[in-house]
């Protein structure tokens, strides 16, 4: 027997719980920004993904503070128009890959969240992550993904599945 939920009848927290428990795994990014005074900020995001290769666009979901003021990441991107998305690996100390982005567009979703789309202008990789044919080694990236609640996972178990031809 199936269970269904009318999202229009659920609270924000209930919708959040269902979404983060179902849309898995979600890559974790450490987004770094600099404010207009030169202060560096770093914040983790699991509402992040790639959207397009032409132009090269990725997106992060930036939540506001409870009083609807901008958190540091959102504020800094608004003021400087740039941010860097660092891929979080199991080793954590140094990102295996980082994307320098220029803000492309910001979508306001109600009062509590923005979706910031950034155009990737530079990509940086740790030695050994990318081969000469531009194939990225998933084991070298060793990315961490967010599952529901506080549960995270790595991508160490892999298998091949051909992309369907349409």
From TrEMBL:
It comes from the Bacteria. Keywords: Flavoprotein, FMN. InterPro entries: Flavin_Rdtase-like_dom (IPR002563), Split_barrel_FMN-bd (IPR012349). It holds the Pfam family Flavin_Reduct. Residues 21-136 form the Flavin reductase like domain. The keyword Flavoprotein applies. Its cofactor is FMN. GO terms for molecular function: FMN binding; oxidoreductase activity, acting on the CH-NH group of donors, NAD or NADP as acceptor. Belongs to the flavoredoxin family. This is Flavin reductase. It comes from Rhizobium leguminosarum.
């Amino acid at each position: 027997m199936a269970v269904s939920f009318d999202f229009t009848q659920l609270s924000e927290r209930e919708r959040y719980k269902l979404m983060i428990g179902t849309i898995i795994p979600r890559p974790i990014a450490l987004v770094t920004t600099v404010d207009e005074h030169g202060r560096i900020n770093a914040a983790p995001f699991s509402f992040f993904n790639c959207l397009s290769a032409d132009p090269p666009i990725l997106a992060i979901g930036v939540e506001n503070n409870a009083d609807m003021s901008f958190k540091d990441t959102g504020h800094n991107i608004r003021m400087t128009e740039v941010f860097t998305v660092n891929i979080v690996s199991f080793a954590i100390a140094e990102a295996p890959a980082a994307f320098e982005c220029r803000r492309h567009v910001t979508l306001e979703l109600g009062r509590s969240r923005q979706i910031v789309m950034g155009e990737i202008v530079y990509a940086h990789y740790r030695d050994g992550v990318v081969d000469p044919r531009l194939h990225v080694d998933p084991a070298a990236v060793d990315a961490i993904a967010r599952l529901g609640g506080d549960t995270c996972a790595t991508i160490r178990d892999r298998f091949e599945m051909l992309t369907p031809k349409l």
